[in-house]
Amino acid sequence: MTEKQTYAADGFDWEGLRAHAVDAAKHAYAPYSNYPVGVAGYADDGRLLQGCNVENAGYGVTLCAECGLVSSLHMTGGGRLTHVVCVNGSGEVIMPCGRCRQLLWENGGPELLLMTVSGVKPMSEVLPDAFGPEDLA
Ligand code: THU
Predict the structure, then answer these.
(1) pLDDT exceeds cutoff 90 at 82
(2) Where are the domains of the chain?
(3) Whose CA is nearest to atom 13 of ligand 1?
(4) pLDDT at 9
(5) What is the CATH code of the structural domain delimited by 3-123?
(6) Where is the CMP/dCMP-type deaminase domain (predicted)?
(7) pTM (two decimals)
(8) Contacts of 38 (CB under 8 A, 6+ apart)
């Protein structure tokens, strides 16, 4: 990870949030892929939330780290995610898979800021023209 990827111009402590994601990855249960993932984020009231991937002998049943993050968001009071970082077991920033981009969209909306492999981006750029709750209205 480069310095450029670590710090954003907005003054937010992305490196601190990444460190929380690295801690979360240490709890991953990934005996099949050997690819631990950790994610950390903040809710709009400042709560820190974390998640790790949890695999299953039925491979397709695997829970991505973001699933845990979103569950934790709702378990601890709900609200909206504002900042998220996802890392692998080496602490490198990774991109959420397609399904998890949809999860982040639902729970953070277009303004959620995500640390990506090419810098901080809003979800509106990470998942353009997304399908979301308002489409069901
Ligand atoms: N994984 C995540 O936890 N989040 C993602 O966004 C990408 C993939 C996990 C699922 C699986 O346990 C491992 O990474 C390899 O695909």
Answers:
(1) yes
(2) 3-123
(3) 35
(4) 61
(5) 3.40.140.10
(6) 12-134
(7) 0.94
(8) 21, 22, 23, 24, 25, 26, 27, 28, 50, 51, 52, 65, 86, 87
